[in-house]
Amino acid sequence: MTSRNITVKVDEEVYRKASIRAAELDTSLSAIVRKFLTDLTVESPQSKSKRIHEFESLWTISDAKPRGTVEPIISSRKNFYNETDAARGLR
User: Is the pTM here over 0.85, yes or no?
Assistant: First the structure.
Protein backbone atom coordinates (compact mmCIF):
# COMPACT_ATOMS: atom_id res chain seq x y z
CA MET A 1 0.00 0.00 0.00
CA THR A 2 1.37 3.40 -0.97
CA SER A 3 1.28 6.12 1.66
CA ARG A 4 0.53 9.78 1.02
CA ASN A 5 1.67 12.74 3.06
CA ILE A 6 -0.86 15.41 3.93
CA THR A 7 -0.51 18.86 5.42
CA VAL A 8 -3.03 20.14 7.94
CA LYS A 9 -3.07 23.73 9.13
CA VAL A 10 -4.41 24.31 12.64
CA ASP A 11 -4.39 27.14 15.13
CA GLU A 12 -1.27 27.27 17.32
CA GLU A 13 -3.28 26.67 20.50
CA VAL A 14 -4.99 23.61 19.00
CA TYR A 15 -1.59 22.27 17.97
CA ARG A 16 -0.18 22.83 21.46
CA LYS A 17 -3.12 21.11 23.19
CA ALA A 18 -3.14 18.26 20.70
CA SER A 19 0.60 17.73 21.19
CA ILE A 20 0.12 17.57 24.95
CA ARG A 21 -2.78 15.14 24.55
CA ALA A 22 -0.78 12.92 22.22
CA ALA A 23 2.05 12.80 24.75
CA GLU A 24 -0.44 11.85 27.48
CA LEU A 25 -1.64 9.01 25.25
CA ASP A 26 1.95 7.97 24.51
CA THR A 27 1.47 8.47 20.78
CA SER A 28 2.06 11.06 18.07
CA LEU A 29 -0.20 13.58 16.39
CA SER A 30 0.39 11.76 13.11
CA ALA A 31 -0.82 8.49 14.65
CA ILE A 32 -3.95 10.17 16.06
CA VAL A 33 -4.80 11.79 12.71
CA ARG A 34 -4.03 8.56 10.84
CA LYS A 35 -6.33 6.55 13.14
CA PHE A 36 -9.07 9.19 12.90
CA LEU A 37 -8.94 9.27 9.10
CA THR A 38 -8.78 5.47 8.84
CA ASP A 39 -11.78 5.06 11.13
CA LEU A 40 -13.61 7.79 9.24
CA THR A 41 -13.32 5.82 6.00
CA VAL A 42 -14.48 2.46 7.36
CA GLU A 43 -17.29 3.36 9.74
CA SER A 44 -20.98 3.76 9.06
CA PRO A 45 -22.38 7.32 8.94
CA GLN A 46 -23.81 6.88 12.45
CA SER A 47 -20.47 5.64 13.80
CA LYS A 48 -18.64 8.49 12.08
CA SER A 49 -20.95 11.01 13.69
CA LYS A 50 -20.44 9.43 17.11
CA ARG A 51 -16.66 9.35 16.66
CA ILE A 52 -16.53 12.99 15.60
CA HIS A 53 -18.65 13.87 18.62
CA GLU A 54 -16.28 11.93 20.90
CA PHE A 55 -13.28 13.67 19.33
CA GLU A 56 -14.88 17.09 19.83
CA SER A 57 -15.79 16.16 23.41
CA LEU A 58 -12.11 15.57 24.19
CA TRP A 59 -11.36 19.12 23.09
CA THR A 60 -14.27 20.50 25.12
CA ILE A 61 -13.02 18.74 28.24
CA SER A 62 -9.48 19.94 27.60
CA ASP A 63 -10.60 23.53 27.02
CA ALA A 64 -12.73 23.55 30.18
CA LYS A 65 -9.87 22.78 32.57
CA PRO A 66 -7.26 25.33 33.68
CA ARG A 67 -3.80 24.89 32.18
CA GLY A 68 -1.71 22.20 33.78
CA THR A 69 -4.69 20.34 35.27
CA VAL A 70 -5.80 18.20 32.36
CA GLU A 71 -5.86 14.60 33.53
CA PRO A 72 -5.60 11.82 30.99
CA ILE A 73 -9.04 10.63 29.95
CA ILE A 74 -7.55 7.42 28.62
CA SER A 75 -4.60 6.08 30.55
CA SER A 76 -2.56 4.78 27.62
CA ARG A 77 -2.47 4.31 23.87
CA LYS A 78 -3.23 0.61 24.33
CA ASN A 79 -6.33 1.42 26.39
CA PHE A 80 -7.43 3.96 23.77
CA TYR A 81 -7.41 1.35 21.02
CA ASN A 82 -8.96 -1.32 23.25
CA GLU A 83 -11.78 1.00 24.32
CA THR A 84 -12.33 2.24 20.77
CA ASP A 85 -12.44 -1.29 19.36
CA ALA A 86 -14.74 -2.46 22.18
CA ALA A 87 -17.13 0.42 21.48
CA ARG A 88 -17.21 -0.62 17.81
CA GLY A 89 -17.88 -4.25 18.76
CA LEU A 90 -14.47 -5.48 17.58
CA ARG A 91 -13.36 -6.87 20.96
Answer: no
Give every residue of the chain whose pLDDT is below 70, as ranges: 43, 62-91
Distance from the Cα of residue 88 to its chain's centroid? 15
Sequence-distant (6+) residues with CB within 8 A of 26 are 76, 77
Q: Give the H/E segment covering residue 22.
A: helix 12-24
Residue from 26, 70, 47 nearest 36 by CA? 47
Q: What is the pLDDT of residues 57-79, one digit of tens each?
A: 777 776 666 666 555 555 556 66
Q: Which amino acid is at 7?
A: T
Virtual torsion, Cα 28, 32, 33, 36, nearest 10 deg:
170
